[in-house]
Amino acid sequence: MATVYIKPGTGTGTGTLADPYFQSQIATAETAAGTDGTVLFTDGEYSNVTFDAGINYQAVNPQGAIIGNDTATGITTFNVGNNFNNTALAWSIKNFKFFNIRFRFNKNQSGTSNVFSSNTVITTSTVTGTYADVGVFDAYNAGSGDVQFHNNSILYRSVSGDGIVARYINNFDIQNCTFAFLFADATTRTWTAGLPSGMKNCIFSSDTVAAFPSGLSLNTKATYSCFFQCNTDNTASGTNINSDPLFVDNSIGDLRLRPTSLCINAGTAS
Fold first, then answer.
1. Domain hosting residue 118, numbered range
2. Of residues 22, 33, 40, the one with CA closest to residue 93
3. Strand order across the 190-192 sheet
4. How confident is the model at residue 85 (pLDDT cuts 50, 70, 90)?
5. I want to staple 214 with a disulfide (CB 3.0 to 4.6 A). Which of 154, 164, 228, 231 is the partner?
6. Within 10 A of 17 (CB to CB), how many other CB atoms are there?
């Protein structure tokens, strides 16, 4: 098990911070890292990456490693982990910024602890291609391991004709996440299998009340969270609030909060 470095482009490096591997050498980097090793991505723009089970993938600087293309007209499906769910090896993906990516999560065997944390995902939906109507996160037939889904910021920009924003992430451990939706019309979307209980410190926000998936029971499944224009889940009580989170500019994925946001200091550290 080792830690190696990688940078964008094609060429030959040795995997050190001073002389990183190039992305064209990613298979070499993964082999050098070994099982449960770490591949650290230096700042820059990368093309598509296959995230394999048994490897920790992390950007050296938060959101400094960018994967995908914000101007792309379609989205790319990334298979994460082992496609056949027959490995006890976990995967970990941290600190990246993704554009126009759909994630197909494979959670692998029971007892596997996988991590998707501190990432920014900005995706414009599509209605063409394989699994076109699945949305941004898909854990269908994905094994029975655990997924720690913490500290992520998600902007999902829909197009007319899409129907599912995500599916089968209903047993993820979701904390400290922001989900922002910009819908193309008022047609109600679906969040297949719903969301898990035990969520906390999360923001769910949409620009169109009727388009947000209905019946998610956010107020009973989440604590210390904010809901805004969430269809049937607009009612908040207890530690939850119903308020515009006041993003700096969600149209471009800037989900930082303005100083007057009621979400500031509304969470819990426990």
1. 63-257
2. 40
3. 76-80, 101-105, 137-138, 164-167, 190-192
4. low
5. 231
6. 12
d(CA 41, CA 95): 10
- Summarised one tens digit per residue, pLDDT across range 134-158 is 778 888 766 677 899 999 999 999 8
**Does residue 37 fall inside a structural domain?**
no
Per DSSP, the three-state class of 218 is: helix
159-172: pLDDT as tens digits: 888 889 998 999 89
Neighbouring CB atoms inside 10 A of 92's CB total: 18
Query: Domain tally for the chain?
Result: 1
Paired with 103 in beta bridges are: 78, 137
User: 40 lies in a domain?
Assistant: no
pTM: 0.94
- Long-range contact list for 222-228, CB < 8 A, 24+ apart? 222/195, 223/199, 223/268, 224/200, 224/266, 224/267, 224/268, 225/199, 225/200, 225/201, 226/202, 226/262, 226/263, 226/266, 228/203, 228/204
CB-based contact 172:194 (threshold 8 Å): no
Alpha carbons within 13 A on the beta-carbon side of 229: 17
Residue 26 lies in a domain: no
In the chain, which residue ranges form alpha helices assigned H by DSSP?
26-33, 218-221
Checking if the pLDDT of 84 tops 60, the result is no
Decide if 54 is inside a domain. no
Residue 132 pLDDT exceeds 70: no
